[in-house]
From TrEMBL:
Name the record gives this protein: Replicative DNA helicase
Protein family (similarity comment): Belongs to the helicase family. DnaB subfamily.
Gene Ontology biological process terms from the UniProt entry: DNA replication, synthesis of primer
Domain (SF4 helicase): residue spans on this chain: 199-504
InterPro entries: DNA_heli_DnaB-like_N_sf (IPR036185), DNA_helicase_DnaB (IPR007692), DNA_helicase_DnaB-like_C (IPR007694), DNA_helicase_DnaB-like_N (IPR007693), DNA_helicase_N/primase_C (IPR016136), P-loop_NTPase (IPR027417)
Class of this enzyme: isomerase
Organism in which the protein naturally occurs: Roseomonas indoligenes
Subunit structure and binding partners: Homohexamer.
Length: 510
């Protein structure tokens, strides 16, 4: 018999009062602990410091106890005395304690006090009962939904909604965290600096496979949300795949340095909401084998190309790269799959292509698109912090870029930019001047004479030569470092990015 079998007998119908079988059981509570804590607080207001960080009025099972705690909390935080005398006057006029005998109940609370030193323990008992009551309520909702209480939610959506509710309870209701001593924080900072010092190029985070990007960002850092944005055809996906592939290579290389026979523990998860997994794999194969992706799809390749294609595919098969091409995935489903991957294979980087195609958690109903995007970006940032991995989310730009003479993107060009810009630790834009210059090729029909046309054409050709195979990665926001522009090499035929000063010669790939 599973957990649900014990709650719902076969053939039984759900009642409107909640879970079947729970009516005989009282919700988890400890009224004695509540009385003891309130007595301790009334006896000595300094005891409030032991519970102020995690306890609130709504955590009390008895609403009257919650009101007393709220009154104590309000006076103590205002720097006023909260004892039987000061609270008696307040409750005499409000009548809030009439149900339990009036203000005289405050004196009874004092007699229930066991010891001020135990206030913290009482508070944790009260909070634990609150969490368990929340779990009971959540379970009731899950069961009633499964019986059809909300027919608009199918089974998969109910799973996602339940997981989101559990995550919210764990995040908002958890009492972990709090102050970290400066000594501990300083130790972590020194360890980070030591890693950067001992790593070639001064990279303390996960390598992107692009030297200049690593130099500017210091690698990809745990808990960071990085936004990579650009207009269509700029190469957002290609650059994200390049970074993901470079990071996966770095994970594999680090594992093999420790043990040549090791299987890498960790990897890169790419959530491709726009392209299928095989299309994404074709892009990587095209880049690494330098065989055009279009020719691969059409089968227009020579035996030599095919042999190279097979050879490269064998090498790539050992790279710890994982692709999920579920369309319109929700933030809760993404979190579930990342947790599972972290538990089974390990996880070092998450890439989402792209965030405007995601959906908020099942069961939530944002009022507008801006609020919806805000939920998604906040969810991605929460995942980055929870799993302690960097998250790169691709984003589209608004069309207002096209109306400017200089089409280099700015922060204001982000769609629903307020929430994206606020939640991101790094905002990067990919821009290729060559794409826009190609559209400005002079046409002879637009010139009065041949001399002006020739002059304009010569200038256009020189501009195209300067922009050919070049791209810019514009870092417009970096919470932990400088902003600026990184110039990159780009081969459109293979959708391939690289460091600009390398010798991009066919011979080096033979």
């Amino acid at each position: 018999m599973n957990a649900f079998d014990s709650l719902v007998q076969p053939g039984a119908e759900p009642s409107g009062n909640g879970l079947l079988g729970l009516s005989q059981r009282l919700p988890p509570s400890n009224l004695e602990a509540e009385q003891a804590l309130l007595g301790a607080l009334l006896a000595n207001n300094k005891a409030y410091e032991r519970v102020s960080e995690f306890l609130a009025a709504e955590h009390f099972a008895d609403p009257i106890h919650g009101r007393v705690f709220h009154a104590i909390q309000r006076r103590v935080e205002a720097g006023q005395l909260a004892d039987v005398v000061t609270l008696r006057a307040e409750f005499e006029h409000s009548g809030l304690l009439d149900e339990v005998g009036g203000p005289a109940y405050l004196t009874q609370l004092l007699t229930a006090m066991v010891g001020i030193i135990n206030a913290g323990e009482y508070g944790r008992v009260i909070f634990d009962c609150f969490l368990r009551r929340q779990l009971v309520d959540l379970g009731e909702v899950v069961v009633n939904r499964a019986f059809g209480a909300e027919p608009e939610l199918d089974g998969r959506m109910q799973l996602e909604a339940a997981e989101q509710a559990l995550f919210d309870l764990a995040t908002d209701g958890g009492s972990e965290g709090g102050m970290v001593s400066f000594e501990k924080a300083l130790t972590a900072a020194v360890e980070l600096a030591e890693r950067a010092f001992s790593t070639p190029g001064g990279v303390s985070g996960l390598s992107t496979g692009l030297r200049d990007v690593d130099s500017k960002l210091g690698g990809l850092h745990p808990s960071d949300l990085l936004i990579l944005a650009g207009r269509p055809a700029m190469g957002k996906t290609a650059l994200a795949v390049k970074i993901g592939y470079g990071a996966a290579q770095a994970v594999r290389r680090e594992a093999l340095e420790k043990d040549p026979n090791a299987v890498p523990r960790g990897g890169v998860a790419i959530f491709s909401l726009e392209m299928s997994a095989d299309q994404l794999a074709t892009r990587i194969l095209s880049e690494q084998s330098r065989v055009s992706g279009d020719r691969i799809r059409r089968g227009d390749i020579s035996q030599r190309d095919f042999d190279k294609f097979v050879e490269v595919s064998r090498e790539l098969s050992s790279i710890p790269l994982f692709i999920d091409d579920t369309p319109a995935i929700t933030i809760s489903a993404l979190r579930t799959r990342c947790r599972r991957l972290m538990r089974t294979k390990g996880l070092n980087l998450i890439i989402v292509d792209y965030l405007q195609l995601m959906r908020p958690a099942a069961g939530s109903r944002p009022e507008n698109r801006v609020q919806e995007i805000s939920q998604i970006t906040q969810g991605l940032k929460a995942i980055a912090k929870e799993l302690s991995v960097p998250v790169i989310a691709l984003s589209q730009l608004s069309r207002q870029v096209e109306s400017r003479e200089d089409k280099r993107p700015q922060l204001a060009d982000l769609r629903e930019s307020g929430s994206i810009e606020q939640d991101a630790d790094v905002v990067m834009f990919v821009y290729r001047d060559e794409y826009y210059l190609a559209q400005k090729m002079p046409k002879e029909l637009n010139f009065d004479n041949n001399e002006k046309y020739t002059e304009s054409l010569d200038k256009w050709q020189k501009d195209m030569e300067q922009a050919h195979n070049k791209a810019e990665l514009i870092i417009s926001k970096q919470r932990h470092g400088p902003t600026g522009t990184i110039r990159l090499f780009f081969e459109g035929e293979f959708t391939r990015f690289g460091d600009l000063d390398q010798t991009h010669d066919q011979d080096q790939y033979e």
